[in-house]
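[Discussion] Sanity-checking designs against the backbone

I'm trying to build intuition for which residues belong where. Below is a structure token string of 111 positions. I'd appreciate it if someone posts a full sequence so I can compare it with mine line by line.
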């Protein structure tokens, strides 16, 4: 349904006949009906939700600093050692070895 069709349908609907008194009292009746709905919600203090958010953020930061960051540093330290050994691997593969399975490189240790 496009706007034109909606407007044409709305124009065909008959407006109910109301007295002037009805329209004068209408805003006050709407306000009276809305008061219990608005009053049903308890006014919340802005302090508690903010405290929960800040506390959660602080806990997440502490968890990151105590658990995740040290494990990342250890992994990076081992990765650097692994990369260093991998870079030196072609220098260690200089000796060939022949056995019953064929010709293979002999991994020689540093002397």
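Best answer:
Here's mine. Compare freely.
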């Amino acid at each position: 349904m496009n706007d034109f069709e909606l407007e044409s349908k709305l124009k065909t609907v008959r407006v109910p006949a109301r007295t002037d008194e009805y329209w004068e009292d209408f805003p006050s009746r709407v306000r009276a009906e809305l008061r219990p709905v608005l009053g049903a919600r308890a006014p919340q203090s802005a302090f508690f939700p903010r405290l929960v958010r800040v506390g959660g953020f602080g806990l997440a930061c502490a968890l990151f600093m105590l658990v995740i960051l040290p494990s990342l540093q250890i992994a990076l330290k081992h990765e650097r050692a692994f990369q260093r050994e991998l870079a030196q691997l072609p220098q260690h593969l200089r000796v060939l070895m022949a056995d019953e399975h064929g010709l293979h490189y002999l991994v020689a240790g540093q002397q």
